[in-house]
Amino acid sequence: MRVWKQHVREVELDNVYVWEWPVRITHWLNAISIWVLSVTGIYIGFPMLIAAGPASDHFLMGWARAIHFYAAIVFTLSVLSRILWMFMGNWYSRWHRLIPASKERIRAMGLTFRYYMFGMRMPPGFVGHNPLAGLTYAFVFLAFLVQIATGLAMYGASAHVDSPLRIFAGLLPFLGGAQMARWIHHVVMWAIWAFFVHHVYSAILMSQVEATATVESIFSGHKFVPREDIVKPGYRFEHPEA
Amino acid sequence: MKDRQSWFVEELERRGVSRRDFMGFCGVMASVLTLPRSAGARIANAIETKEKPTLVWLEFQDCAGNTESFLRAGRPTVADIVLDVLSVDYHETIMAAAGHQADEALASVVRDKPGEYLVVVEGSIPTGANGAYCTIGGRSALDIAREVCGGAAATIAIGTCAAFGGLPAASPNPTGALSVADAVPGVKNLINMPACPANAENLVGLIVYYLTFNRFPPMDSYRRPLFAYGKSIHDNCERRAHYDAGQYVEAWGDEGHRTGYCLYKMGCKGPVTFQNCPNVGWNSGTNWPIGCGHPCIGCAEADFWDKMTPFYSHIAGFPGFGVHTSIDRVGLWATAGVAAAFAAHGFVQLGKRYAHARADADNEAKPPPAKTPTDDSATEKGADA
Fold first, then answer.
1. Where are the domains of chain A?
2. CA distance A161 to A165
3. What range does the domain containing B373 cover?
4. Which chain B residues are within 8 Å of A178, Cβ to Cβ?
5. pLDDT tens digits, one per residue of B270-300
6. Chain B residues with CB inside 8 Å of A118's CB?
7. Domain A3-7+15-47+81-238 has CATH 3.30.1710
């Protein structure tokens, strides 16, 4: 047990196992595959390297595409596994930590936002995702699903006639055609990148301000949190001096 | 049947087409339809012996480009004859009848052969101003299409306008133009054959398939026959090896363009356009757009024009940033903007932290006051209560 200084008082910290191994593994598979998908995807969208000499000597775009497709398989399975885990895992990994379904979480969402706007000195304490972060992750998963759908639709349309992936070409009319699917695939990638910047910054910020081992928790699974955050999450701000 | 067969053979001979040429045509049709070569004999038998279906050809908001595509064949082909021996009872551009006679030709087909005839629709169907933008003999295109297509055995929407709305339906769509599928909801056995214009070989192939097997070929989710629209242009492109190798044209007339590199970076829509142009070609197989160094503009796809423009950009820009601004540039700047915003947040955070640390140090030095009115959280509490 460590001792934690919350501006004016000292509190005892409890060791909580927050992120189970499937959450951590899918998190890192997502992170790695998003990097690989983005690097190969940017090359596929804007091939800045031009190979010289006979075409038969090179396979630049061919490799970029192959790596992109294999990374896409990893990414898709990882995202689907994580979504499955939202219904199987522990309390902190469940879907209701992402979608704010209770009055308390909706209220605390506004307070978290106020904290980010420097309206409060300390964020409302939560052990797992705070409601604002949770909602952001809900949108991120939506973005992931859009990427998977547009990617599968484009792949399916050009897949071998006998390929079972061919069925995903049926999504194209709903996406507005293959060219529109391509456009969505680009825009959503940048949205995910904007999220990535926010994600890393906010994780480091929370790790610094709350000092509950936020960044470390995605490696170890453990957080060290004041007991009141477990007993009464989201209300730390109500009694800052108690 | 014997009589009919001899009539057909005679007709071929009269036009200088040998039986050998005819069998060759049937083999070509088998390959256009992506059937095994042995299907050629079955196709030949069907063309020679089957009763030819009656066909009417309706033109609405169109440029007659699809009609031209058939009529301007470079040399008389067996395909022309197949189209000739179809009983084409109504075709505004090429029929001899005019006025009431022409109207009667169409009316009699609809009246006397319900559920038996084929209808080819060319052009989109305007719905604005109660259909006043396109009327024939005083009747609106919508009215005619609903009646004629409603009683047909099958409707073939030929060209991008009839299949998807095409140019007339491009934004802002002043005439309220619709595709056949949208204008005649629930139309029976609709087959879309888009492209601007549609390839003559594909329509002939479709009719040959129908004559041979008495049904229509497998279709995709846009109701396009898979034999002609099952593969992207990109996947059958003769320049595909350059794409996979990473060899692209970067400017008109550069070394790559003259060498025949891939036109991907010049905005080629081949990867998102589904048609058999690379295999079948145009003008009796003489050439096709990419073959002569121009990128595909995606004329065979839904929402052609609105979604395929700008033609010489890989992808459309972001709304509000101009059509030629690369979406990836906008995305990169947006990501950089988010990073800058969070960096600014970080500096404010550090400043606040420093200020709080000093205030705490001062508080610890002094005896604790009864209240801490400077504490943000305390004022929060008041605001929340």
1. 3-7+15-47+81-238
2. 9
3. 328-384
4. 232, 271-274, 301
5. 999 999 999 888 877 889 999 999 999 999 9
6. 348-349, 352
7. no
